[in-house]
Amino acid sequence: MAGMVRVILRLAGENLAVFFLATFLIFWIINQAPGDPIDIWHPEPGMSAADRQAIAQELGLQRPLVERYARLLWRTVRLDLGAFDGVPISERLLHGIGVTLLLALSASAVSVAVGVPLGVLGGLERGGPPIRVATMIVYVASLLPVFLLCYLVHLFFLNTVGVLPTPQSVENRATIWKVLTALSMASVLGIGDGTATEILRYVRSEVRRISNSQFIRAARVNGGSVTRHLARNTLVPIATIINLRMLYFLGGAVVVEAIFQLDGLGWLTWQSIDSRNYELLFAVSVVSVIAVCAVNLLNNVTIGLIDPRVRARSG
Amino acid sequence: MWTTYETDRRGPKAWALLSSMGRGDGQMAGVLSLIGGAVIIASFALAWLIATLGLAGLSDRTNLEQVYEPPALTPLKWLLDQRDVRASTLFGAPPQAEGFHVLGTDGAGRDILSLLVLGTRTYLVPGLLAVSIALGLGILLGTIHGHYGGYAAKAVSWFVKTVHSVPKLLLLLVIGAVTDFDVKWLMFGLGFAGAPRVTEMVAARIASLRRADFIEAAREAGLREWVIVAKHVLWYNCRHLLVIQASFFMAEAILMETTLSYLNSGAQGLSWGRMVQHGSNDLFQGIYWTSAAPAAAVVTTILGFYLLGDGLNRIQQS
Lengths: 315, 318
Fold this sequence. Notes:
The structure holds 2 protein chains of 2 kinds. Chain A is an all-alpha fold. Chain A has 14 helices and 2 strands, in the order ααααββαααααααααα. The chains are: A mainly alpha, B mainly alpha. Chains A and B meet through helix 1, helix 6, helix 7, helix 9 and helix 11 of A and helix 1, helix 5, helix 6, helix 9 and helix 10 of B.
């Protein structure tokens, strides 16, 4: 028990350190932005050198880089970041996290809904040509760049309803188009980013392996359920795959949200870049890095608790 | 050693799957995809050469008298047009003349094919820059990690962890925000973000070869350490892996550049991604060729590099 606690503490510390390093890297890059912050905040002409110095003092520009980083990080963590377009940044951030999380979860749902049936049928060599064609389509879709898939979805919508599939433009349309818009966003992210392919491939090879194994034959002979054994062997790895793929969804969401005009974290990133709001950009980056570190910690802890070698090394 | 975060292995893996569905013989499928990839990349390089040397009357000049001309792909129309084009160059008449446009023209009357060929300049040299940074930095850090232990190795693995914990697209966006989406800096960032993968590969290779008989023999023979590492480990035993990585990495660089330029349509400069973006506005009017042609070019080029990498991989393994 003490060993487990030590493993968790060590991994948490490691991830925390990585979090600080990564956010500092981003802060340093943002600091390389051209232009003087004084000119941006106070654009009035004809300032004396003393005035500029006073403003620099007020903005804390003369402090060392590490201190400015720490201050900004502290403000970000406390969600004390001022407003953007009239709405507090903290509110936007929380809203964006919710939207992106919803998008990522529905993308995972779509990839499971696509990957598992195709994988099971493919592994059992059932279903014939339609299943094989569908599998092929999923593979090809995962090869295409995500933005091209979005473009194809736009093409489809333009030819059928004559509007782009964005939340704003389908607002007054029939419910089916709203559902289709949401579904297309989720499937572009889930299938186009390769999660569905990964699940499909895993399930297929696992089903193939298990259905030839001794205990399944024994279960068949005894008249037991094969499904139960399949489910027990594939559920946990699928959860792990989805867990890891959440990180890809963060990147993919930037593309999907920008094209479908969905106001999640990715959309917020673009907003901050377009308006040169570097504090917002930093805040969005911090949220992303936190997400990555949290998922990594979760995975590391799971592996650490399962794999005795890892436990032994730290003990 | 460190946790692998499974970063960005999607493309190559997905492609390997796709081609394994053909169930061809490994060697044969490898040769075929190698040839396919080589052909695509050769035409890409040829287009780059033509664009750079300024051959064939290419022009991105606007000509408002030829706005939105549809592609002249049908053989009959092509033959009819041929009679008119006396001084036809490699791509038909220069776009500003009355000649025909194989892929049509865009909203400013520019010949799409010319733009596509000129657009290769956005990809080849910057892509190679990203690849060489990723390989150079990765080999250096991997050698440090694999060959020297202790604090140097610890520092390298912290670097790998840190870079892995920033989503790649986010890093590129931050760099883009600061440098106004300058392709040079973007590719620099991409190379930086891709280095950990190469680092892991090289470090693992060196670690597995450290106790190999031929390395011990080389040491006994009095070869210097750096000769052993550079020649016997890196050159003889990592070369093929690095070439395959470079090919996949090039595909990724093109994909990233295209995605960013698609999303950031405000920036200037010729890019296939931007062409798709601008062209998709024309879809409302039923004009498909302004976006379909660059989209096809993107997919074909990325596929070419995947094919090459996959072919090399298969031949290596079989």
